Write a sequence for this structure.
């Protein structure tokens, strides 16, 4: 049996259950090939490990002969001293403030998906949003961004000024950007090339009377391809032909070009390789350094704990816990995420 | 710097690649021309026949330029034939029954096209009714509309100056002047582009390549003008097509609206999340299509010197086929205006060549139908290899 990233859309307990099933199958003599980015799972379930990079087999051996760090360095082809480049940030004034925010289900108009949440984001901090799948994190932030179809109530303040955002265009104009958890569906036009995808949200900036300055477009695209180290044979490469990590960086480039004050990153490292993950963490740190507020939504607790300065835990549409990084650990967050206090 | 140079080179390589795909269509066209030339003992390539061919394709080509945008955005427009027939009938009624002059007739007819576009755009963009349904409805509504306003009879004749639009020729001397103006304009634009690329620090092709490119384009312009003036000059409807192709190619590639059309067709959700106003873009697409349908209607009525009840029947299928033979994807996101014109030219060539050979209309229709499938199959299989 071949399983390709089977747990990427599962909660932790569901994933655990799946692994149990696999162990049972194994004992019945079924050979399984388990493809995953999640090394914890690989070490949990595998008997032997094969590392592929750039379409070549790097190594294949018994699990006992590997450590997690060794696998990572084999995957990226160089030694990574740490998995998370944690930098100490100094949080400044409050930039984004969300008050009494409620989001309703688009199909069932009276069902609340997000129930009366209040929070703020400060300049120069990474705010982590933890929670289980279906807790309402994506709905909350795509709603603030104006992209969610369900009705919403509540107030959003950006730099003290109240905003009414009805669609993504208004959000982008006000300096709010949202990198979706599903880049193929909501992030990229895979038929278009790298430069077009980067420019897509920003054509107003490089056009006069709606005539596009194509040279400026190339210039901007070059800038972000270099800054974000997007590996592409050319700016005219269709993004559909790029790897997941590079596709994600193209989406990131698009949002950086829009010059955001607040950037929502919804599962930005999902389904991309360890090396690209590390680069995205670094980019997050650089953005914070430049004064951008970063909201980091992730289902992987290690990266939340490894990158954030402050963590909100969402459980069934409510904020069920707030931690400074110093006082947070995996157990506390899981406890809140599953409904405990 | 070195890196960016390598990148720019890669871009050029890619644009060559694209040309190769376009070349297969051009090769197919040339192949068809060679076959017909042989089969008709050279009649096909006579300047008279080429001039006629260009005129015959003009109405389909006008509709196809807009149809590309519609299809790229992921829609379809089944109404263009009926709308062209209806607007053509409006023009004929204004001239024949109300004795209007040609210029106000044209203005009002275009306005009618604009209003029809607004109507369709309203239902599609704002009321979210699928374009297939809205335009199917309009196809019936305006087919009925033609019968209603013409009371089922052919309306003719129109003023003589109205006839120029569909039947007239630009006199040879003026045709040559236009050819020269087009050549000079191309050189100026090309030099400006080059300067601007240098200003932005982007790589430019070497001067010799640039010059040979200019010479190639001018040679094409000269060849076209030469063939046309050796008959009677550039036909007016062909000139209209050329202008529309230039304008719509520019709109598709170099305006925000044009890029939004491709983005919406490629991935509507991502377009919305990127802040693109999908409603406004869809509205604009159908406005443009309405106006183009009216232009086609004017040319049609002028060419026939009459408005008939069956005018424009099935034109939508020719326009859709042209766009698709020219590389537009029915799934949206792909297609070009010049490609659609090439498609229209291929269809018109088959039409014209087989008529020259006195092949029965039934066979002609069958062949045209088969060409559509084969062209799309060739396109799909070359894409797979690429």
């Amino acid at each position: 049996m071949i399983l390709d990233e089977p747990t990427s859309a599962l909660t932790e307990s569901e994933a655990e259950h799946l692994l149990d099933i696999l162990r049972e199958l194994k004992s019945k003599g079924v050979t399984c090939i388990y493809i995953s980015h999640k090394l914890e799972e690989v070490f949990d379930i595998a008997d032997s490990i094969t590392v592929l990079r750039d379409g070549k087999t790097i190594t294949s051996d018994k699990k006992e002969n590997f450590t997690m760090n060794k696998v990572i360095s084999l995957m990226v082809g160089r030694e990574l001293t740490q998995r998370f480049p944690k930098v100490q940030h100094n949080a400044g004034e409050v930039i984004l403030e969300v008050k009494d925010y409620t989001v309703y289900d688009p199909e069932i108009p009276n069902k609340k998906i997000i129930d009366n949440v209040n929070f703020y984001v400060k300049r120069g901090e990474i705010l982590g949003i933890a929670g289980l799948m279906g807790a309402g994190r994506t709905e909350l932030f795509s709603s603030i961004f104006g992209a969610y179809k369900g009705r919403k109530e509540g107030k959003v303040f950006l730099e003290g000024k109240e905003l009414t955002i009805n669609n993504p265009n208004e959000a982008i104009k006000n300096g709010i950007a949202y990198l979706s958890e599903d880049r193929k569906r909501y992030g990229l036009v895979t038929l278009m090339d790298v430069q077009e995808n980067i420019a897509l949200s920003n054509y107003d900036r490089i056009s006069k009377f709606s005539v596009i300055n194509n040279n400026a477009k190339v210039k901007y695209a070059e800038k972000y391809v270099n800054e974000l180290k997007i590996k592409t044979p050319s700016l005219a490469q269709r993004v559909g032909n790029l790897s997941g990590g590079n596709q994600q960086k193209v989406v990131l480039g698009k949002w950086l070009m829009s010059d955001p004050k607040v950037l929502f990153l919804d599962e930005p490292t999902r389904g991309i390789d360890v090396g690209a993950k590390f680069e995205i963490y670094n980019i997050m740190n650089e953005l914070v350094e430049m004064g951008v507020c970063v909201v980091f939504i992730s289902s992987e607790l290690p990266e939340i704990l490894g990158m954030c300065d402050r963590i909100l835990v969402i459980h069934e549409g409510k904020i069920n816990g707030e931690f400074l990084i110093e006082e947070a650990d995996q157990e506390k967050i899981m406890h809140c995420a599953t409904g405990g206090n | 710097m070195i890196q960016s140079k390598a990148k720019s080179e890669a871009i050029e390589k890619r644009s060559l690649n694209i040309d190769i795909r376009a070349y297969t269509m051009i090769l197919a066209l040339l192949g068809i021309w060679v076959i017909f030339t042989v089969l008709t003992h050279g009649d096909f390539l006579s300047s008279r026949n080429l001039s006629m061919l260009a005129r015959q394709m003009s109405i389909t080509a006008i509709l196809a330029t807009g149809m590309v945008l519609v299809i790229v955005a992921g829609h379809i427009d089944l109404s263009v034939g009926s709308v062209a027939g209806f607007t053509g009938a409006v023009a004929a009624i204004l001239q024949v029954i109300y004795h209007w002059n040609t210029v106000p007739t044209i203005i009002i007819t275009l306005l009618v096209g604009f209003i029809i576009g607004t109507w369709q755009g309203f239902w599609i963009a704002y009321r979210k009714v699928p374009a297939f349904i809205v335009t199917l409805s309009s196809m019936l509504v305006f087919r009925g509309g033609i019968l209603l306003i013409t009371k089922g009879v052919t309306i003719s004749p129109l003023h003589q100056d109205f006839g120029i639009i569909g039947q007239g020729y630009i006199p040879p001397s003026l045709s040559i002047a236009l050819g020269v103006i087009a050549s000079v304009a191309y050189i100026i634009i090309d030099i400006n582009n080059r300067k601007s690329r240098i200003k932005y620090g982007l790589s430019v092709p070497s001067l010799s390549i640039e010059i040979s490119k200019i010479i190639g384009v001018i040679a094409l312009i000269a060849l076209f003008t030469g063939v046309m003036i050796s008959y009677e000059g550039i036909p007016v409807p062909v000139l209209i097509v050329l202008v529309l192709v230039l304008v719509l190619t520019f709109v598709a590639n170099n305006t925000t609206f044009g890029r939004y059309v491709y983005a919406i067709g490629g991935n509507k959700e991502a377009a919305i999340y990127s802040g693109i106003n999908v409603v406004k873009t869809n509205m604009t697409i159908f406005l443009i299509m309405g106006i183009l349908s009216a232009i086609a209607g004017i040319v049609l009525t002028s060419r026939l010197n009459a408005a008939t009840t069956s005018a424009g029947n099935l034109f939508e299928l020719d326009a859709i086929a042209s766009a698709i033979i020219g590389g537009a994807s029915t799934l949206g996101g792909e297609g070009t205006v010049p490609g659609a014109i090439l498609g229209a030219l291929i269809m018109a060539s088959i039409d014209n060549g087989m008529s020259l050979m006195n092949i029965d209309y039934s066979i002609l229709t069958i062949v045209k139908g088969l060409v559509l499938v084969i062209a799309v199959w060739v396109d799909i299989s070359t894409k797979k290899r690429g």
Residues 12-27 of chain A form the longest helix (16 residues). Residues 2-76 of chain A form one domain. Chain A has a mean pLDDT of 91. The longest strand of chain A covers residues 94-104.
